[in-house]
Structure formats: structure tokens, C-alpha cells
Amino acid sequence: MDLSKRQSEIINAAIKLIGEGGIQALTIKNLSIEIGVVESALYRHFKSKTDVLSALLDYIESIMDSNFNGVKDLKIDPFEKIEKLIDSQLKFFADTPSYAVVILSDGLYKNDKILYDKLFDIMKVSRSTFATIIEEGQKEGAIRNDVASDQIAFIILGSIRLNVNQWGLSGFSFDLQKKGKVIFHTLKTLIKNPSNNSQNLYNKK
Description:
The chain has helices at residues 5-21, 28-35, 39-42, 49-72, 78-95, 97-104, 113-139, 149-169, 176-191. It is mainly alpha-helical. The two termini are 38 Å apart. The relative contact order is 0.11. Mean pLDDT is 88; it is low at 198-205.
């Protein structure tokens, strides 16, 4: 996404405000104070708080897409890809907890179709990425094929979301990525092809 220097400054200020006070701390007034300009100056770049959030969601989506594409193109087995995807998502949130607040505050967007649709698109891309890798594993016999790939992807994303929710509610008190490794190995046990357990090279890990 293309942002002007000032728009990028505003987005970074928004991320900081959300990190310090939650999504409710993001107001045009607080943004103007944070970057040291009058409110009218902000309106030259964003028409409203909704526009700021929309740009922030676009920014988050671009980073996540880059992470997903980087993993999808790796010449490694499907389980390693799933593990790296889970780890990259959790690292993304661990490095900047504000992003988790924005993504998980979906209830606040339900009355704003533009924001809700953007958030839904981010979720669809995540689910599609996992489903594609799962299908790859199913074709190779590594992953069980008696459960649809999109349903396995749904379970994986639900596990990630619950983990991030618990992390946020705990005041970010535990190692998010370390917990993610536990989740991955549990999921691997559940989704690996049981009929190929003895020969499957991917079960060596």
C-alpha cells in the first residue's frame, strides 16, 4: 500500500495509541496531540477515525501477506510450512501487540461495513493460505484427508486466535511463540495421516 510520509506518521501514532490504551484510545484528538498538530491538519490526510483504521488494516494485511507468501514459496514439507506460518503470525503479534488488538476487536467493526469487510478479507486470506498448504500435505499423504482442508485450517486459526486472546487477557504475560510451538505439535498429532505413520518422512520431527 502507498502512504505519504505524513500518513505513515499518523498510522504509526495510531499503533502507539492503541498499544498504550486500547482501540478506544484511538481518536482524532489523541492522534493530533500525539503527532503535535491541530485536528484540522489530520483531516487533510484522513477524513475520519474510520479512514485511519481502514489504512491500518490495509497496512496489517500487507505485512501478513508478505509473511504468508514468504512461507508458501519455501521448498519444505507441509508440516514445516504450517509451523512457520503459526510462528510468523504469533511473532507478528508478539513484536507489536497493537496489531493483535486491532485484529481481535472485530466486534467494534460490526456496524461499519468497510472495516468489517477488510477484517473478513484478512481472515479469508489466512484461512486460504493454511488450506492450500494442508491440501499439499493431503496430496502427499502426510496429512489426513478424511477432514476437509478448509476445516483443518479453521481449527488451526481458531487455536491461534484463542492463544492470542489468552495472551492479551493475561497482560501479555507469557511467551506467545513458545506457546505456539506447543499448539503446533498438538495440531500435528491430530491432523497427520494415521495410516502413513510408519513411513511418512514428515513424522520424524
